[in-house]
Specification:
307 residues; alpha/beta; TIM Barrel; eight-stranded parallel beta barrel; 13 helices; 44% helix; globular
Length: 307
């Protein structure tokens, strides 16, 4: 079954929880300064660590009979960073290959997403690309994911409208289905000041092949609830097109979480309840975890959304 067919028929699709934080804290594998997590597969024990974490999340999806999404840890593996770090295009292909191996050894329904990200700092919204340059910049990675045979493309924490449009244009050229996930604040807007509604409207109107849906990641569900509660986002368009979250366990900013010496976590049941409450405002179809989450949080999210 294709990812689009799964999306259309499924009420809930479970997405993975945190990888980066857990690799750093549980396996002593810090981020690479240039490509972040993309080189983990080449480090001693890296493939095994990733497999252990993904298999925890896959087991939960299987437990609750939910389709599962896993995305490659390649948000920073764009052409500029890959070559600056001394790697080649193989780093993207090898990350996809590992996920394919995991899927081949499982009897569960799993879809592989090729994870991409903005050129600059998503949290500070620096080095924002304009539409044409964004399309050119991101096409290299999108084309590699098409070559590698992913099921869909995923643009994570996009902070600006112009680069998100360019990203969408690069993604649609592959003819693969794709999802755009925004960086959002409690003011209901992207860091560049664009509302959720306007971002969806302008991206949809800028491409022929529209995203499968829109969502957000690296945000606490209570912040998203507030963002969606503004009148300018309480629109039929948002309700019909915005369908997912990869949730943080804390309402602190991403910068505060990233620089914290201690892992800041909330109770898994409380997080799951907050994720479930989003269904008051949107049709929630994709749910997973980001900063602070582990298998216990994903288990509770799956349990609550299945009820």
């Amino acid at each position: 079954m294709s990812f689009v067919s799964c999306y259309k028929r499924s009420s809930i699709i479970l997405m993975e929880g945190a990888l980066g934080e857990r690799l750093k804290r549980e396996y002593n594998m810090p981020f690479n300064d240039i490509v972040a997590l993309a080189d983990i597969i080449y480090r001693k024990g890296g493939k095994e660590a990733l497999a252990e974490l993904w298999n925890q999340y896959i087991d939960i999806a299987q437990k609750y009979n939910l389709p599962f999404i896993a995305t490659t840890p390649t948000r920073r593996a764009n052409k500029e960073r890959v070559f600056r770090a001394g790697f080649s295009e193989t780093i993207v292909l090898d990350n996809v290959s590992l996920l394919k191996q995991l899927r081949d050894t499982s009897d569960h329904e799993i879809y592989i997403g090729g994870l991409m990200g903005c050129k600059g700092d998503a949290y500070k919204a620096t080095e924002i690309l304009q539409v044409d340059e964004a399309q050119e910049f991101h096409s290299w990675q999108a084309d590699l994911f098409m070559k590698a045979g992913v099921d869909f493309l995923f643009a994570g924490i996009m902070p600006s409208l112009s680069e998100a449009i360019g990203m969408a244009k690069a993604m649609e050229q592959t003819v693969l289905p794709y999802i755009i996930s925004f960086m959002l604040g409690d003011n209901g807007k992207l860091p560049d000041g664009t509302t959720i509604n306007d971002a969806i409207l302008q991206i949809d109107n800028s491409v022929n092949q529209k995203p499968v849906c829109y969502m957000t990641n690296c945000i606490h569900p209570t912040i998203l609830f507030k963002a969606l509660s503004y009148d300018f986002n309480k629109t039929p368009l948002v309700k019909s097109r915005f369908h997912g979250i990869q949730a943080n366990t804390s309402a602190l900013s991403p910068e505060e979480l990233d620089n914290s010496a201690e892992l800041i976590c909330s109770n898994p049941i409380e997080l799951a309840w907050a994720v479930s409450k989003l269904r008051e405002l949107i049709s929630l179809k994709i749910a997973g975890g980001c900063c602070g989450t582990d298998n216990t949080h994903i288990d509770q999210i799956a349990l609550h959304l299945r009820q």
